[in-house]
Design brief:
Shape: globular
Number of strands: 11
Mean pLDDT: 93
CATH class of the largest domain: Alpha Beta
CATH architecture of the largest domain: 3-Layer(aba) Sandwich
Oligomer: single chain
Structural class: alpha+beta
Number of domains: 2
Strand order of the largest sheet: 1-2-3-4-11-5-10-9-8-7-6
CATH superfamily of the largest domain: Gcn5-related N-acetyltransferase (GNAT)
Distance between the termini: 27 Å
Largest sheet: 11 strands, mixed
Low-confidence stretches: 1-19
CATH topology of the largest domain: Aminopeptidase
Helix content: 25-40%
Strand content: 25-35%
Length: 268
């Protein structure tokens, strides 16, 4: 990672008293991981403004993963400047804020035609708080993915998320190359049935890309994948895990011991 959110905040003076709560520590780790994804992806980029705003280009057609992101109370003027810069790159993109967007942020979003909204929970669980399954349903083997297997990983993930392979661009290869990141494929009866990714940043473990192919859902593969990532991440030194979950997957993560810290809004 070139420069972490923590170091940018220290350099700019933004948030010196702010990034101390559990929520803020998890947020800092999330931004550090996004930075790593962007700078390791071909065609990706990561930039930070003097007001603490971040611009991430992950070079794919998923608007929620390209855009202007605010780790704290948004600097509306800076968000507007960086949104104009982001628009020049030609990718679909979003504006992200913690909690509810201010009227100023909504105006910036409207200026760029970002009228859709998605609210996602930021969830966390300590290593001691994880509730592992005592009798796992899944019998899938969870295999670590090598960088040379990035295309197989991408094809499997696209099938799991029911999306065309090309929407992910080179992002998934970048994720596998990023420091502290490990990709996984679940294999059942010789067939790839799911994916996952763990990303360790300091003492925090991010969980990403949990997906199961449609014909293999509701058999415990997603939980088995999540548990493997948790075990490996905690063994690597993390003490807390975090993730952003779809509405449908919240009950799964709550059953694992995760709880919602806060919600983030994406305008796209």
């Amino acid at each position: 990672m070139v420069e972490s959110l923590r170091s940018v905040l220290a350099r700019t003076g933004k948030g010196r008293q702010r990034m101390t709560s559990e929520n803020d520590q998890v947020t800092a780790a999330w931004f550090d991981v996004m930075h790593a994804f962007a700078v390791h992806t071909t065609g990706g980029r990561s930039e930070s403004g003097p007001g603490g705003t971040w611009l991430f280009v992950t070079a794919n057609d998923i608007s929620l993963e390209n855009g202007v992101f605010s780790p704290g109370p948004p600097d509306e003027a800076e968000v507007a400047v960086m949104a104009r810069r982001m628009a020049g790159f030609g990718w679909d993109f979003c504006l992200q804020v913690r909690g509810e967007p201010t009227p100023g942020i909504l105006r910036v979003a409207a200026d760029h035609g970002l009228h859709e909204r998605e609210v996602l929970p930021l969830m966390t669980c300590s290593a001691a708080g994880v509730r592992y399954a005592t009798a796992p349903r899944s019998t899938a083997a969870i295999n670590v993915v090598k960088v040379t297997e990035a295309e197989h990983y991408a094809v499997t993930m696209a099938a799991a998320f029911e999306a065309p392979r090309e929407v992910f661009g080179a992002l998934l290869e970048g994720e596998l190359k990023a420091n502290g990141c490990t990709g996984y494929i679940a294999v059942h009866d010789g067939v790839a049935v799911g994916t996952g990714l763990g990303a360790v940043s300091g003492d925090q473990l991010g969980i990403y890309n949990i997906g199961t192919l449609p014909d293999h859902r509701h058999r415990g593969h997603g939980r088995a994948m999540s548990e493997r990532i948790l075990r490996d991440g905690f063994a690597a030194g993390a003490t807390r895990a975090f993730l952003q979950s779809s509405t449908e997957a919240v009950p799964l993560y709550e059953s694992l011991g995760f709880r919602t810290l806060e919600t983030w809004t994406y305008l796209y």
